[in-house]
Design brief:
2 copies of one chain form a homodimer. By secondary structure, chain A is α+β, with helices and mostly antiparallel strands. Chain A has a single domain, classed as Alpha-Beta Plaits, CATH 3.30.70.100. Chain A has helices at 29-42, 68-76, 78-91, and strands spanning 13-22, 46-53, 58-65, 92-109. Chain A has a 4-stranded antiparallel β-sheet with strand order 2-3-1-4. The longest helix of chain A is centred in the N-terminal third of the chain and has 14 residues, at 29-42. The A-B interface holds A 3-5, 8, 11, 14-15, 17, 19, 21, 23, 50-56, 58-60, 62, 87-88, 92-110 and B 3-5, 8, 11, 14-15, 17, 19, 21, 23, 50-56, 58-60, 62, 87-88, 92-110. Chains A, B: GO terms for molecular function: monooxygenase activity. Chains A, B: It holds the Pfam family ABM. Chains A, B: Residues 13-85 form the ABM domain. Chains A, B: It comes from Bartonella apihabitans. Chains A, B: This is Heme-degrading monooxygenase HmoA.
Amino acid sequence: MTKAFSKTPPPPYYIVAFSSRKTEGDNGYAEMAKAMEELALQQPGCLGAESARGDDGFGITNSFWKDEESMKVWKANVDHKLAQKLGREIFYSHYVIRVAKVERDYSFEKADI
Amino acid sequence: MTKAFSKTPPPPYYIVAFSSRKTEGDNGYAEMAKAMEELALQQPGCLGAESARGDDGFGITNSFWKDEESMKVWKANVDHKLAQKLGREIFYSHYVIRVAKVERDYSFEKADI
Protein backbone atom coordinates (compact mmCIF):
# COMPACT_ATOMS: atom_id res chain seq x y z
CA MET A 1 0.00 0.00 0.00
CA THR A 2 1.04 3.56 -0.63
CA LYS A 3 2.69 4.93 2.47
CA ALA A 4 3.49 8.34 1.12
CA PHE A 5 1.60 11.56 0.87
CA SER A 6 -0.39 12.25 -2.28
CA LYS A 7 0.43 15.40 -4.17
CA THR A 8 -3.14 16.59 -4.49
CA PRO A 9 -4.00 19.76 -6.46
CA PRO A 10 -5.59 22.83 -4.91
CA PRO A 11 -9.20 22.13 -3.82
CA PRO A 12 -11.89 21.49 -4.74
CA TYR A 13 -11.50 17.76 -5.30
CA TYR A 14 -13.06 14.71 -3.68
CA ILE A 15 -11.94 12.37 -0.95
CA VAL A 16 -13.20 8.84 -0.54
CA ALA A 17 -12.50 7.95 3.09
CA PHE A 18 -12.50 4.18 3.52
CA SER A 19 -12.26 2.85 7.07
CA SER A 20 -12.13 -0.89 7.52
CA ARG A 21 -11.52 -3.68 9.94
CA LYS A 22 -9.84 -6.70 8.44
CA THR A 23 -10.75 -10.24 9.20
CA GLU A 24 -7.94 -12.34 10.68
CA GLY A 25 -5.19 -13.68 8.44
CA ASP A 26 -4.06 -12.42 5.08
CA ASN A 27 -6.02 -14.73 2.74
CA GLY A 28 -4.54 -12.95 -0.27
CA TYR A 29 -5.43 -9.51 1.02
CA ALA A 30 -2.03 -7.84 0.67
CA GLU A 31 -1.78 -8.87 -2.96
CA MET A 32 -5.34 -7.74 -3.75
CA ALA A 33 -4.91 -4.41 -1.95
CA LYS A 34 -1.69 -3.68 -3.82
CA ALA A 35 -3.27 -4.54 -7.17
CA MET A 36 -6.33 -2.39 -6.45
CA GLU A 37 -4.24 0.56 -5.38
CA GLU A 38 -2.14 0.34 -8.54
CA LEU A 39 -5.27 0.04 -10.65
CA ALA A 40 -6.96 2.98 -8.91
CA LEU A 41 -3.93 5.20 -9.46
CA GLN A 42 -4.13 4.46 -13.19
CA GLN A 43 -7.73 5.69 -13.42
CA PRO A 44 -8.31 9.04 -15.09
CA GLY A 45 -9.16 11.53 -12.36
CA CYS A 46 -7.50 9.62 -9.52
CA LEU A 47 -5.31 12.14 -7.69
CA GLY A 48 -3.67 9.75 -5.24
CA ALA A 49 -4.27 7.55 -2.22
CA GLU A 50 -2.93 7.38 1.34
CA SER A 51 -3.22 4.33 3.58
CA ALA A 52 -2.46 3.26 7.12
CA ARG A 53 -3.33 0.11 9.03
CA GLY A 54 -2.42 -0.72 12.59
CA ASP A 55 -1.62 -4.08 14.15
CA ASP A 56 -5.20 -4.36 15.39
CA GLY A 57 -6.53 -4.68 11.83
CA PHE A 58 -8.22 -1.29 11.72
CA GLY A 59 -7.17 0.71 8.68
CA ILE A 60 -7.95 3.86 6.75
CA THR A 61 -7.42 4.54 3.06
CA ASN A 62 -8.17 8.03 1.85
CA SER A 63 -8.21 8.29 -1.93
CA PHE A 64 -8.52 11.51 -3.87
CA TRP A 65 -10.54 12.11 -7.03
CA LYS A 66 -11.02 14.89 -9.51
CA ASP A 67 -14.79 14.75 -9.74
CA GLU A 68 -17.95 12.68 -9.32
CA GLU A 69 -17.52 11.11 -12.75
CA SER A 70 -14.09 9.68 -11.97
CA MET A 71 -15.34 8.17 -8.68
CA LYS A 72 -18.34 6.67 -10.48
CA VAL A 73 -16.20 5.06 -13.18
CA TRP A 74 -13.85 3.58 -10.57
CA LYS A 75 -16.71 2.24 -8.45
CA ALA A 76 -18.06 0.43 -11.52
CA ASN A 77 -14.68 -0.91 -12.74
CA VAL A 78 -15.02 -4.66 -13.32
CA ASP A 79 -11.85 -5.69 -11.45
CA HIS A 80 -12.73 -3.34 -8.63
CA LYS A 81 -16.24 -4.80 -8.46
CA LEU A 82 -14.71 -8.24 -7.93
CA ALA A 83 -12.43 -6.83 -5.21
CA GLN A 84 -15.45 -5.25 -3.52
CA LYS A 85 -17.19 -8.62 -3.53
CA LEU A 86 -14.13 -10.37 -2.07
CA GLY A 87 -13.89 -7.57 0.50
CA ARG A 88 -17.36 -8.31 1.78
CA GLU A 89 -17.01 -12.09 1.58
CA ILE A 90 -13.47 -12.54 2.88
CA PHE A 91 -11.32 -9.56 3.80
CA TYR A 92 -13.40 -7.16 5.88
CA SER A 93 -15.63 -7.64 8.88
CA HIS A 94 -16.76 -4.01 8.77
CA TYR A 95 -16.19 -0.98 6.61
CA VAL A 96 -17.49 2.54 6.17
CA ILE A 97 -17.03 4.68 3.08
CA ARG A 98 -17.54 8.43 3.19
CA VAL A 99 -17.49 10.57 0.07
CA ALA A 100 -16.64 14.19 0.72
CA LYS A 101 -15.72 17.32 -1.20
CA VAL A 102 -12.45 18.85 -0.07
CA GLU A 103 -12.85 22.56 0.55
CA ARG A 104 -9.38 23.45 1.83
CA ASP A 105 -6.13 21.85 2.86
CA TYR A 106 -2.92 22.79 4.57
CA SER A 107 0.30 21.08 5.34
CA PHE A 108 3.55 21.12 7.25
CA GLU A 109 6.87 19.62 6.33
CA LYS A 110 9.94 19.77 8.51
CA ALA A 111 12.87 21.39 6.81
CA ASP A 112 15.90 19.15 6.38
CA ILE A 113 18.37 19.97 9.10
CA MET B 1 -6.19 6.17 19.94
CA THR B 2 -9.70 5.28 18.96
CA LYS B 3 -9.62 2.10 16.92
CA ALA B 4 -13.33 1.79 16.41
CA PHE B 5 -15.75 3.15 13.90
CA SER B 6 -17.48 6.42 14.66
CA LYS B 7 -21.25 6.44 14.64
CA THR B 8 -21.64 9.47 12.42
CA PRO B 9 -25.08 10.89 11.61
CA PRO B 10 -26.54 11.04 8.11
CA PRO B 11 -24.62 13.55 5.93
CA PRO B 12 -23.96 16.36 5.53
CA TYR B 13 -21.21 16.75 8.11
CA TYR B 14 -17.51 17.51 7.87
CA ILE B 15 -14.42 15.37 7.86
CA VAL B 16 -10.98 16.59 8.85
CA ALA B 17 -8.56 14.15 7.22
CA PHE B 18 -5.20 14.34 8.97
CA SER B 19 -2.34 12.37 7.41
CA SER B 20 0.98 12.42 9.19
CA ARG B 21 4.41 10.91 9.36
CA LYS B 22 5.81 10.64 12.84
CA THR B 23 9.36 11.38 13.77
CA GLU B 24 11.25 8.47 15.34
CA GLY B 25 10.64 7.52 18.95
CA ASP B 26 7.63 8.24 21.12
CA ASN B 27 8.82 11.39 22.95
CA GLY B 28 5.49 11.57 24.77
CA TYR B 29 3.46 11.25 21.60
CA ALA B 30 1.15 8.42 22.65
CA GLU B 31 0.13 10.29 25.78
CA MET B 32 -0.43 13.56 23.90
CA ALA B 33 -2.40 11.86 21.12
CA LYS B 34 -4.66 10.10 23.61
CA ALA B 35 -5.29 13.32 25.53
CA MET B 36 -6.06 15.26 22.35
CA GLU B 37 -8.45 12.62 21.10
CA GLU B 38 -10.31 12.58 24.40
CA LEU B 39 -10.44 16.37 24.40
CA ALA B 40 -11.65 16.52 20.79
CA LEU B 41 -14.44 14.05 21.51
CA GLN B 42 -15.66 16.30 24.32
CA GLN B 43 -16.03 19.28 22.00
CA PRO B 44 -19.55 20.30 21.03
CA GLY B 45 -20.07 19.28 17.42
CA CYS B 46 -17.39 16.57 17.36
CA LEU B 47 -19.06 13.48 15.89
CA GLY B 48 -16.17 11.05 16.33
CA ALA B 49 -12.68 10.16 15.19
CA GLU B 50 -11.03 7.15 13.55
CA SER B 51 -7.28 6.52 13.55
CA ALA B 52 -4.78 4.10 12.11
CA ARG B 53 -0.99 4.14 12.07
CA GLY B 54 1.30 1.55 10.57
CA ASP B 55 4.72 0.41 11.73
CA ASP B 56 6.35 2.77 9.24
CA GLY B 57 5.11 5.82 11.15
CA PHE B 58 2.59 6.92 8.54
CA GLY B 59 -0.85 7.47 10.05
CA ILE B 60 -4.27 8.83 9.27
CA THR B 61 -6.82 10.28 11.66
CA ASN B 62 -10.19 11.19 10.22
CA SER B 63 -12.30 13.23 12.62
CA PHE B 64 -15.91 14.18 12.03
CA TRP B 65 -17.57 17.48 12.81
CA LYS B 66 -21.03 18.93 12.74
CA ASP B 67 -20.23 22.22 11.06
CA GLU B 68 -17.61 24.87 10.29
CA GLU B 69 -18.11 26.51 13.67
CA SER B 70 -17.26 23.38 15.65
CA MET B 71 -14.06 22.83 13.61
CA LYS B 72 -13.08 26.45 14.10
CA VAL B 73 -13.54 26.30 17.88
CA TRP B 74 -11.50 23.09 18.10
CA LYS B 75 -8.70 24.49 15.95
CA ALA B 76 -8.45 27.48 18.31
CA ASN B 77 -8.67 25.46 21.56
CA VAL B 78 -5.75 26.46 23.80
CA ASP B 79 -4.63 22.93 24.70
CA HIS B 80 -4.99 21.87 21.08
CA LYS B 81 -2.92 24.89 20.00
CA LEU B 82 -0.11 23.69 22.25
CA ALA B 83 -0.41 20.17 20.81
CA GLN B 84 -0.22 21.60 17.30
CA LYS B 85 2.97 23.43 18.24
CA LEU B 86 4.51 20.28 19.74
CA GLY B 87 3.41 18.39 16.64
CA ARG B 88 5.42 20.69 14.41
CA GLU B 89 8.41 20.91 16.75
CA ILE B 90 8.67 17.30 17.92
CA PHE B 91 6.18 14.69 16.77
CA TYR B 92 5.68 15.05 13.03
CA SER B 93 8.07 15.34 10.13
CA HIS B 94 5.23 15.94 7.68
CA TYR B 95 1.48 16.30 7.80
CA VAL B 96 -1.39 17.24 5.54
CA ILE B 97 -4.86 18.29 6.70
CA ARG B 98 -7.81 18.25 4.35
CA VAL B 99 -11.19 19.65 5.34
CA ALA B 100 -14.08 18.20 3.38
CA LYS B 101 -17.86 18.13 3.45
CA VAL B 102 -19.28 14.62 3.52
CA GLU B 103 -21.98 14.22 0.90
CA ARG B 104 -22.82 10.52 1.31
CA ASP B 105 -21.67 7.43 3.12
CA TYR B 106 -22.30 3.72 3.06
CA SER B 107 -21.15 0.81 5.11
CA PHE B 108 -20.93 -2.93 5.42
CA GLU B 109 -20.86 -5.06 8.53
CA LYS B 110 -20.56 -8.80 8.50
CA ALA B 111 -23.42 -10.53 10.24
CA ASP B 112 -22.42 -12.59 13.26
CA ILE B 113 -22.28 -16.22 12.24
